[in-house]
Amino acid sequence: MEEYKLSNYTRENIKPQNITEIHRNLLLPRVSVNFYKSLSVSIFFFGLFFLAGCDFGLDAPYEDANGIYLDLLSNTQVNGDILLVQGDKAYVIYGQSITIFDISDKLNPELENYYPPLDEYINNAKIKGSYIYAVSEYDSKFIVINISSSSPKIVGELELEYEGKEVEIDGNYAYVRADNYLLTIDISSPTNPVLVNTIHFSSGLYDCIVENKVGYLYYRSKLTTYDFSDPTNPLKRFEMGYWSGHFLVKNKEYLYVKNKGFGEEVSRIDVTKIGSSKELKFIRWIEFPDDIIDFDFDGYGVASSNSTLYLLNIDDPSYPCVAEKVSGGGSSLTIKGDYIYYLKGSYFTILKVQKIK
Predict the structure, then answer these.
(1) Could you tell me the maximum CA-CA distance found in the chain, to the nearest angstrom?
(2) Which H helix or E strand runs over 146?
């Protein structure tokens, strides 16, 4: 399959970090790396003349971001709202249906199974082992779907008092975000999920991550951490004022927060350091020219707007740097090692992170 080359230039300031980039469409074919190397001097000087006539409001020069670029491996047509990836399987959920792809060959994902319809519409889901844990869109339910059999089926249900928005899984517990509530559900017996605790927040709970019994939450203009060592009695450990957060991703000892003020055209990802006692300290932000709708981190970072996908170099996790900017953003992003998976329109897309040696 032909490779696709994208630009690999970044521009940055120390505090705050801003980015603007030379940009090409994902579908422009890439000729050989050696050809690009032979043109590098010409391109560099052309870039200098081009930039001299542009006012980006930044002072720092462009620089090569370690020769990192993306290859488009495959585009597979499928309808989907939620993408889950585990091992060599990709699960695309669309309403009541689940489409399963074998992605052991990233260049040619193969349709393995298609299962319509489930009894419930799925609003959000996470995968662990042989089960998908989800919340129903129309009925206030937490549901457990067994995916180990020849036909996925719902094997566990729990009626919820509040409409579930999002699911997190940590150990034997599921954490369901439901407007002003965080529900803790014991899933040690997947066929018999049990509600064990409810935390009420005075205003909206916008996002929640739970990892190794520690929760990271954004609510009511605050970032906070919780200790879930005893899930029936979680304890607040730290809280800091925070304006206009939207959703969170954790990477090692850093928490990345999408931040966008009301009516603002640009958005940013804030980098927050997690201390040894789970206290939080704002470090810096990286600003984007359009509204980021999803992002993920694993070895690299990837952020997406409706129209643009950004690859982030996180050799220094406290200082993410945009290495690539490509046309064709998407939703339900997942990055695992060198591979990026996401949904865009009616396509399931796989990209690979490459480096010029």
Answers:
(1) 66
(2) strand 141-146
The dihedrals phi and psi of 356, each to the nearest 5 degrees, come to -80, 120
Backbone angles phi, psi at 45, to 5 degrees: -70, -35
Q: 92-99 long-range contacts, Cβ below 8 Å, gap at least 24?
A: 92/343, 92/348, 93/122, 93/125, 93/132, 93/134, 95/121, 95/122, 96/120, 96/121, 96/122, 98/132, 98/145, 98/147, 98/152
CA-based nearest residue to 278, from 238, 230, 317, 236:
238
Containing 44, the helix (H) or strand (E) segment is helix 33-52
The confidence score (pLDDT) of residue 204 equals 82
CA distances from 251 to 19, 145, 301, 316 (A): 21, 28, 9, 11
198 Cβ partners below 8 Å, 6+ apart? 181, 182, 183, 184
**Measuring CA to CA, how many Å separate 261 from each of 82, 156, 266?**
26, 40, 9
Give, as one character, the DSSP assignment of residue 46: H
Q: Using an 8 Å Cβ cutoff, are 248 and 256 in contact?
A: yes
- Average confidence score pLDDT of the chain: 80
d(Cα 229, Cα 233) in Å, to the nearest integer? 8
Closest residue by Cα to residue 242 from 206, 292, 211: 206
Would you state the torsion angle of the CA atoms of residues 241, 242, 246, 251, taken in this order, to the nearest 10 degrees? -90
Q: Are 344 and 333 in contact (CB under 8 A)?
A: no
- Other beta carbons within 10 angstroms of residue 243's beta carbon come to 8
* d(C-alpha 57, C-alpha 12), whole Å: 11
- The pTM of the full predicted model, rounded to 2 decimals, is 0.80
Per-residue pLDDT tens over the stretch 49-59: 333 332 222 22
